[in-house]
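Q: what does this look like with iron/sulfur cluster bound?
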Amino acid sequence: MSNDPLLQPYKLKHLTLRNRIMITSHEPAYPEDGMPKGRYRAYHVERAKAGVALTMTAGSASVAQDSPPVFNNILAWKDEVVGWMKQMVDECHDHGAAVMIQLTHLGRRTRWDKADWLPVVAPSHEREAAHRAFPKRIEDWDITRIISDFADAAERMKAAGVDGIELEAYGHLLEQFWSPLTNDLEAPYGGSLDNRLRFTFDVLRAIRARCGEDFIVGLRYTGDQCQPGGMTAAEGLEVSHKLKNSGLVDFLNVVRGAIDTDPALTDLIPIQGMKNAPHLDFAGEIRAATGFPTFHAAKIPDVATARHAIASGKLDMVGMTRAHMADPHLVRKVIEGREDDIRPCVGANYCLDRIYQGGLAFCLHNPATGREETMPHSIPAAATKKRITIVGAGPAGMEAARVAGERGHAVTVFEAADQPGGQIRLTAQDERRREMISVIAWRQAQCEKLGVDFRFNTFADAADILATNPDEVIIATGGLPHTEVLSGGNDLVVSAWDILSGDVKPGSNVLIYDDAGDHAALQAADLISATGAAVEIVTPDRSFSPEVMAMNLVPYMRNLQKRDTTFTVTWRLMSVAREGNALRATLGSDYGDFRRERLVDQVVVNHGTRPLDELYFELKPQSSNLGEVDYRALTAGAVQDVRRNTEGRFRLFRIGDAVAARNTHAAIYDALRLVKDL
Ligand SMILES: Cc1cc2nc3c(=O)[nH]c(=O)nc-3n(C[C@H](O)[C@H](O)[C@H](O)COP(=O)(O)O)c2cc1C
Ligand code: SF4
């Protein structure tokens, strides 16, 4: 048996967990009709198969009708949930993983215009900034109703065969009672700490009465709200002791901070560029003080830190949640001594930011996550070995090379630069986004193991491609910034890439025109404003940087707001003209014939990329499919079989931004989806 601290079993009450790695509760917004159906089940089963000890399913599964999900959570208040949960639990159990579920009432952390349009309740009328609902102050009959809703939901989960449940007590209703910031009730549920905890203990007692002493029940709660007027660490410790001493809970799952604003949420769940494991010591202090089973997760992306968390006795179970979204086979790779093969979570937070926009949680660089029913995490070998030639070693080309290599094909990659990475290499020059380079570095290491032939510093032409005698050619040449969007003065502007690459020095009074709304504009603004320059970001959209999304915006704002930076929405850059040493920028509006003028010394335009597609069009007439992709076959996971030119000796495809400007996830998904069937 291994002596790896991470792989030692852990006994929680009667339950033996096979190792120390867990997936903490996270709602990927996969339910269908509020139920964990096929997509949901496949996601958890994939991770159970690969060895995770405990998967805490759902995230904020709702116990009551007046706690409508804001991003498609499981509806634990419906009886039909039992059957769906049971299927998932049984299948995960078949693979040796324990399964629990997080239950909650969101209180004010939702909206009244969802589902049944019931009023939102909370222990005060204070609004939560993130979800904006002004709540009804909770009444006695609400309290009685919600206590029994919790017990009903727990009983349903017990019937579904879960190994236990955890209650969510940070930012949601339970904690809204705890915190003086959100509870202005009178006794018995407001006032002293014991009064503020009363609702939680009433809920726990009701659950125990219904589910018995043996049922495992834990709490996921904040040990320190880190907010003026909120619960302090000292109070948090008192709560931890009270929870333990109540005899009503079996484990503590500790977080630190608050979630009522985007910045607070981002400190609680840190993203790339922020410190790893920032709250681990804090959780360890609670474990040391209480001597009680303690779980914790917050940006512990790598096995070494996770191992330290267990070996040092800070935690009993370490959460590696996004790490498991990036690589579901993480535990198997640890067991097999293949830690180097683990696809790293790079903290891009595409997963989490998407759910707040109403989308499904997808991993930036693992498109099979959440698509387990159609996309493989392990690429099967091809029956027929082919020669596959790829042009471009950005994210799309690198994924194509990796997948083709896994298929067992002979793969050649041409890249004009001296190293792989494309746009990602540019992004990762920013110290704060340095983790992005692992998207490329992991693929490069995998490709090297698979014997992919890289030809760097080679601007391949058609003859170079044909000389490899390919069966399949994949064009992944990406794009170049497109800045020619003005009625005059296109020659006077620079691109965001010019700034990021260092090719153009920042001006001192700069207008950034952002018509793409993605990271490039904000990265340029960050870099320019850091020099002390004044920066105005102008966008024709209603809000700025829509593609960057909520939590990813936080580090940018923390830099930009402390500098001389302004944002101007709903204005469009029309033209730029030289005026002495300066540039006169004319803004127009989609709302009417309005004009504004700006006098600056630099104009930066961020307007996405245009495909680099000459090679594709040159090769197209010689290919057997004339570049055509059968979309029905592609989306159904079937083999491509387009033949339009009997003379053609190879098939031709293009992927990623070489087709149209999109994002990293789209580029990598293009590659996986196509190449897995080549
Ligand atoms: C898509 C997604 C949804 C999440 N939803 C919840 C949730 O509903 N309840 C919860 O307690 N935590 C939720 N989390 C937070 C995770 O449980 C975990 O605390 C967080 O991701 C930090 O751990 P990690 O760095 O190992 O990913 C969510 C995380 C993600 C990525
Ligand atoms: S999207 Fe980013 S943060 Fe989320 S799992 Fe993937 S790599 Fe990690």
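The first strand starts at residue 10 and ends at 12. The radius of gyration is 27 Å.
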